[in-house]
Amino acid sequence: MSSTPTNEHPIIVGIDLGTTNSLVAWCDESGPCILEDENGGNLPSVVRYDEQGNVAAIGKPARDHAVEFPTTTLFSVKRLMGRGIADVQNELNYLPYAVVAGEHNTARVQVTEDKVVSPQEVSAIILRELKAKAEKALGKTVEKAVVTVPAYFDDAQRQATRDAGRIAGLDVVRIVNEPTAAALAYGLGVGEVDTPSETPNKTGSDPVSLNVNAKPLAQPNESGTVSLNTKFNTEACTTGSGADPNLTGELDDDLDHANSTVAVFDLGGGTFDVSILNLQQTEQGIVDQVVATSGDTHLGGDDVDRMIVELIQKEITVQLGQEIDFPPSTRQAFRSFAEATKIRLSNSEYAQLEIDLGEGRSYQRSITRDELEEMMTPWVDRAIACCKEALKKADLPPEDIDRVIMVGGSTRIPLVRKKVGELFGTVPYTALNPDEVVALGAAVQGSILAGINRDMLLLDVIPLSLGIETLGGAVAKLVMSNTTIPAKATEMFTTHAEGQTNVKIHILQGERELVKDCRSLGEFDLTGIPPMPAGLPKIEVTFLVDANGVLNVSAVEKRSEKAARVQIIPNHGLTREEVDRMETESMTHAREDMTAHQLIDLRNQARLDMRAIERQINKVGDELDDAYRVEIAQKVAIVQKFVDTENPDANEFHVALDAMDKATIRLAELAIKQTLAEEQ
Ligand code: ADP
Ligand code: MG
Question: Residue 531's domain is classified under what CATH number?
Answer without folding.
Answer: 2.60.34.10
